[in-house]
């Protein structure tokens, strides 16, 4: 883990971001005391799981904003949007 002071981090932010992309963790210090840690985002194959739903036909995605399921689930009672609208009254 790399340890760096706030001023150094601000001055060389691009460098430290490249290190994070490589998998390095950064401990940020203020007056020699660690106040925060920056860690790389861990992609836990969430993207591949979502894409497998598309491949299996359970979801549709054409690269834009998701549109929902071809097979919506029927529910009893009010929808979330109806509850929110009621709550706003």
TrEMBL record:
SUPFAM superfamilies, A to Z: YefM-like
Family annotation (InterPro entries): phD-YefM_TA_antitoxins (IPR051416), YefM-like_sf (IPR036165)
Domain of life, source organism: Bacteria
Family, similarity comment: Belongs to the phD/YefM antitoxin family.
Protein name as catalogued: Toxin-antitoxin system antitoxin component protein
């Amino acid at each position: 883990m790399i340890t760096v002071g706030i001023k150094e981090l601000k001055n060389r932010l691009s460098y430290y971001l490249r290190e994070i992309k490589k998998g390095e963790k950064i401990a940020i210090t203020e007056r020699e005391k660690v106040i925060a840690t920056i860690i790389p985002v861990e992609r836990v194959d969430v993207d591949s799981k979502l894409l497998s739903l598309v491949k299996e036909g359970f979801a549709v995605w054409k690269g834009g904003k998701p549109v929902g399921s071809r097979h919506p689930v029927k529910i009893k009672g009010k929808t979330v949007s109806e509850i929110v609208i009621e709550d706003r009254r």
